[in-house]
Design a protein that fits this description.
Blueprint lengths: L1 H16 L7 H14 L7 H11 L2 E2 L5 H6 L5 H14 L16 H7 L3 E2 L10 H4 L4 E11 L21 E11 L3 E9 L16 E11 L2 E11 L29 E3 L9 E10 L2 E15 L2 E2 L6 E3 L1 E3 L7 H6 L3 E13 L2 E16 L13 E15 L2 E10 L4 E12 L2 E10 L20 E13 L2 E12 L10 E15 L2 E12 L2 E13 L4 E14 L2 E15 L5 E12 L6 E4 L9 E4 L2 E12 L4 E12 L4 E2 L6 E2 L2 E12 L1
Parallel strand pairs: 1-2, 12-15
Antiparallel strand pairs: 3-4, 3-34, 4-5, 5-6, 6-7, 7-8, 7-9, 9-10, 10-13, 10-14, 11-12, 14-15, 15-16, 16-17, 17-18, 18-19, 19-20, 20-21, 21-22, 22-23, 23-24, 24-25, 25-26, 26-27, 27-30, 28-29, 30-31, 31-34, 32-33
Helix pairs in contact: 1-6
Amino acid sequence: MGKIVGLLCLLALSLQVCAQEELPASIQQSVEAVTAATTSVSEDDEQWQLLQQRIHHRISLNTADAAQLTALGILLPNQVESLLRYRALLGDFISIYELQAVPGFDVDLIKQLLPYISTGEGFKPQYGIRDRFSKGERSLLLRYGRQLEASKGYVSVNGKPPAYAGSIDKVFIRYRYNLTGYTSYGVSMEKDPGEAFFRGAQRYGFDFYSAHLFISNYQHVKALAIGDFSVNMGQGLIQWHSHAAGKSAMVLQVKKEGEVIRPYTSAGEYYFFRGTGATVQAGKLQLTAFCSLRKLDGTVPGTDTITDTQVATALQSAGYHRTSTEIAKMNAVTQFSSGAAFRYVGNWNVGANIIYHHLSPGLEKSVKPYNQFDFRGNGLMNYSLDYARTFGNMHLFGELARDQQGHMAWLQGALISVSAKADLSMVYRNYDKAYQSFYSKGFGEIYNTRNEQGIYMGCSLKPAARWTVSGYVDWFRFPWIRYGINYPSGGWEYLLQLGWTYRKNIIITGRVVSRKKDEELLTHIRCQADININRKCAASTRLEYAGFRTAAGLQPGLFLYQDVSYKFRRLPVSIAIRGGLFNTGGYQSRIYAYESSVMYENSVGQYYGNGWQYYLNLKWKLDKKLTCWGKIHQVIYLDKQKIGSSYDMIEGNKKTMVQGQLIYSF
């Protein structure tokens, strides 16, 4: 009887998630946490696209390998290993509901997996070259956005032209052909607000163009990339382009996973390579090699008077080319990159990685105490050894990296399943104060993988049927001075989250996060209730307090929002609405919250000051091939008559954004 009840519960869950188009909650929380840590929202949507593809082309539990299961970004390494051992021991899955018998799998985890898995035979067709380029799906995405209030940069002053060279419109277009697991090609183009269009510095139209061709699983070629692609190695100590999870409420997701080479289709203008790369596989051995030649934005003030050569004093990653100053930095630096990764995939997964970058002109920053160990020169080489192994209920992973000057970076982690109701995670890192790398995203308190030592310990518990408890403690120190901190420093951070499933459709979550860093203490206290009223309607309420304390006193903050989403019964229309109030003492007590938006856009709101905000996000599925989105978002400040600074300053207390998006699939 208990098993029957469990099956019925899982069936109800599958009905709720079968049409899921939002990012999974775990990835939403990760995006929110990374945005709070870096103050910038990731434009990488490749994982979101992959999950949408898997909704239409589900993974078979009976034939999927570890790489396919890991690529979903939902399962931990020991959970993947547990599923594969269960299948090897007991044979094919008869039903997806059999997952509840796999050690380490519970209802919440299975609910996350349901949209992307099946128990079919998983027969892999043998596509020829012509089939690879004809049997896939094509999609065209058109996205338009605009701020309704004109900021200072768009206004002419004393008869002079506006500081921004172009209109306030933001446009993104992406065409992509995809045969999941076999072939992908496409082009993307973007114009940011303020950039010219078919004139000035952008006489060829869009400010950013991207194109790719990606072939997968062709004989011994596991991946072949031509054009734009991303590269991810090990645990990110020498190279990681894609979104990288850090500390968040998903306390067990501390290991970076992913294929070395992935197609690049996003709108960001910095975290990718442009050239060619390939991964070949023979048995348990994989070899990846790549090379790239691309232009970067940088500050090139002139010629070095001592060496009589041109030098760059800084690199820019924002990708904006609106003002004359920004345009002067456009494509000012040429970067050549090449590298290789050799991997053995077996009981031990071991990888040896190397990457080399050459800049022209070279980088020569002015020397200051806090940046005296930063990279300077033309060439930079990094190499590393990464490894992973599962021992029963424990999964070990790590990476040891070195730069060309001999400075080291080391990360060692472990995931341990203590019992069916308790899991642990641990990460130790030690990054030398002088370690240098370009695209590293190592786990830690800061994201430059340098000048940091620390130990992280996380725990996830299920003490009772309706209760979950998770938390982590992280101790860290910075052996050398940093910008604004003229002495070695450190601190600690902890998170404690309690989840209660009141009924199968009501989940109440409480969370406390506190971080002591240098002489500052920041505490966030959050209470949230999520209610699935029925299959058509859901609601979410969040109340969050932030307190930023220094020797000068306390700066408090408060944010309250109400979300409602509804799918109409007789119309192919769904809406998501949020109304929120915020009141913080200043920028240091700001609060972040993930927002519903048009598909494939990561949207995280940043709130500080005193005011309120709302948005309305509408989706209209016109037919099987054409879907439209529309969104309006407005923030109204009660304590300001000017919003923003410099050329982005708005005269008034309102900021309104509108968006429209169309996706045509054929």
